[in-house]
# Entry
Amino acid sequence: MKPLARHARRLAVVLLPLLAATGCYDDDTVYDTGVPASCSVADQNVWLDGYMNDWYFWYQYAPRPDPGAYSSVDSYFSALLYTGTNASFPADRWSFMQTTEAFTRLFGDGQALGYGVAVAGIEVQGNPTAPLYVRYVDPGSPAAVQGVVRGDQVISINGRAASDVIAADDYSALGAASTGETLTLVLANGGVQRTLTLSSAVYDLAPVTGATVVTTPQGRKMGYVLVKDMISQVQAPLETAFAQFKAAGVSEIVLDLRYNGGGLVSVGSLVASYVAGTRGEGHTYAALLYNDKRAADYNQRFYFASGVGSAASVPRVFVLTGPRTCSASEQVVNGLRGIGVDVVTVGDTSCGKPVGFLPVSACGTTFDVVNFESVNELDQGRYFDGFSATCPTSEDFTQPLGSGSDPLLAAAASYADSGACPATSALGLKQREARTRRRVEAGQWQGMIGR
# Structure
């Protein structure tokens, strides 16, 4: 897939030119960020100080403590982050570090390491007496192989009662640092309780699932598809899904991005291009704006793809959203609205991340630092409070995603028929927004990567 960015500038290859092998990156574009003199903590901290001062979006407002005063790279990295001193921007809650192995596994190989089970933790935050449900299971993961499904109620995790997990707001046991770790779950469903022991493994992600044609009560055909991750492996199944929609003659499109934590800008632009069709050709999908030191050389535009026809001349698109709809998936909403597409959001408020990364790697660590902000063709951005739902609708985790009983899809179908949001059972959505939109469960968010 040829990248859509009109930016090809050859500089010295100094750090790892990340993800060139995926095909979603411009092989002619590499970035001179220098390298540490060695991999000692002292030398890494000195390099990090210079890198942040040159490349960090908020370098003008961020602290710049003495690198020699910190005994670890982690602690120094945290000390360098912008704290929210400028009224135009909230504090940086996004920049982070990860192993280069984990980064490459996800964005290069399209794989994950773990158990593949995610729970509805943020929805029960502060309410330990509430039931804790499985909300998503990665196809092909250890959890899927052992029959874990959305709607299973979690009774305990590694012997710890679900009420204790909720009270502590600690879901770390659901992640794994290496293969062969174990997770013991006690689950209940339909009055039957069972105990499972899962072993962590590396498995292939399925970033596009659930493609189906749904008929509304009044007979309208809707093409529904869930896009979970903005990674390069999206392309083939997305093409198949939209070919299916075109053959079926759908009149509406539903993009399910409720659990999409982000990923590559180029992939998000492809997803949006399938919706926009010919309306997007020649138009800006997103402009990435760097700090004043880098703007002249690195500001860039991503364009809607040419020759990617929509399934039909749909007048609008329904996007299913929630607090885990973040970064590159929010950019889809913003990019489509920038060219006048009617985007009806159904669900809950998105996370609010209109900024992104150009990851760099050194000494086995990849630094995902906020390098740019993103705006659409109308220069609209800075949606730090997230996108509010056009039709606020509560999830029902006991119902399968994309089924006729899925409340978010049902609300979209009702809107398609009537042109208005249905009466919903969205009790408590507004009260939850403040505490949920800025928190995403560990391991479920990738951010926005500017390639």
The chain has a mean pLDDT of 89.
